[in-house]
Amino acid sequence: MTEFRGVIPPVVVAEHEDGSFDAESYQRGLDRMIQAGVHGIFALGSSGEGAFATPARREEILRATNEVVAGRVPVLAGVIDTQTDRVIEHIKQAEAIGVDGIVATAPFYALGGMPQIERHFRQLHDATELPIFAYDIPVCVHVKLPPALLMKLGQDGVITGVKDSSGDDVSFRFLLQDNERAGHPLSLLTGHEVVVDGAYLGGADGSVPGLANVDPTGYVRQWNAYVAGDWETVRKEQDRLADLMRIVMVPSSTTGFGAGVGSFKTALKVLGIFESNQMPEPVSKLLPAEEEGIAQVLRQVGLLD
């Protein structure tokens, strides 16, 4: 059984100025993270444009991911879509390409209650033998996955773990406690770059930080300190990473996804890893002045001379 723990970055997608997939830049980013010691790769997550990608682009990204990773670490694939049948189609595509696990949100757009969400995850489980992570991201799907439901699905073997991007640290702490008391059936990963230290203190199994695209070494260093029980280093590393996360506050021309993932792509461009900071339509890439502001933050935290 594949172990999903440690630092598992959600990979951002490199694109040429014309919007086509930039395989060379994408490979540089992946190789850089794996060489830094990350413990897995999450393709087609929110940072990886999984909710926007056409089936052809999804296949392009997943095949490129598997070719570059080449079994060095496990690969999780996002299968984010509105309803069950569409998600299962994505699962079948991911299975054919050969990923190690999948990450699915609750169904969205046609919103339902908890019985429908539970049925959704059970049907996904029936459709695949791949491990399933429930992706808790209410800001995008407009429903919060409660700890009680997640524990029920975990204890029944329906899901393997949870990727928590809920922003609800109280709920996540309760989930960590409930999981431990139940014998740890779930692998619990935090998706919040700035409070990873708190998640580790509560007993999280790892992190899925988009910022690790920019500084994978910092997050691996923090994880190693956590495993060693060196809490002072965990805290100090988190403070430095929190300062780095301020790159997402630089943009003024856009907000939300454009500012967050746009800042990650722009930082990778400044660092010479990505050719371009192009974003998927209709999101605009960040402006030259914003690029310079991000470069200043990179200098302040020691990532750029």
TrEMBL record:
UniProt keyword annotation of Lyase present: yes
Keywords (A to Z) from UniProt: Lyase, Schiff base
Name recorded for this polypeptide: 4-hydroxy-tetrahydrodipicolinate synthase
Domain of life, source organism: Bacteria
GO molecular function terms listed in the Swiss-Prot or TrEMBL record: N-acetylneuraminate lyase activity
Gene Ontology cellular-component annotations: cytosol
UniProt-listed Pfam families: DHDPS
Active site: Y135 (proton donor/acceptor), K163 (schiff-base intermediate with substrate)
Biological process according to GO: N-acetylneuraminate catabolic process
UniProt similarity note: Belongs to the DapA family.
Classification via SMART domains: DHDPS
Phosphoprotein among keywords: no
